[in-house]
Write the structure tokens for this entry.
Amino acid sequence: MMTDPTSQRRTSRRRFIAGAGALSLALTLRPADATPESMQAAIREVLGNAKLNQGRVKIDVPPLVENGNTVPLSIAVESPMTETEHVKKIHVFNEKNPLPQVATFHLGPRSGAARVSTRIRLADTQDVVVIAEMSDGTFWTASANVIVTLAACNEDVI
């Protein structure tokens, strides 16, 4: 009995498409990786051996959000933003999203003011930690707890 080569190709394509779909579904259902411990490890990676100081950083984020898919976040850092004294970077971390480091903003003296605004996704109720890296090598921090009633970044739900 002879086999039709086109039917074998169709079977191969079907198997490929089914396999690709299964792989895609498996990747989509991946649970969130970040934990409070992984967030602390990511922070240590940014800080190295430097001391983390409280203050100079102001976080404006709603304490309670209905939907974690789009959470407004504004950050301001006290700094004269001169050539000798300015904010170099603003790092944003969280403890329950798929990745603990949400964003890093690069600034310089020409930025005028050390202020950034964005929207982030939050997988669940969690702390958001902001660290400002200054031109003199110091690091300043603040954190805020955000209660999320409808989680985002949750790959368990399709």
User: Anything to note?
Assistant: The radius of gyration is 22 Å. The first helix runs from residue 5 to 28. The helical segments are 5-28, 36-47.
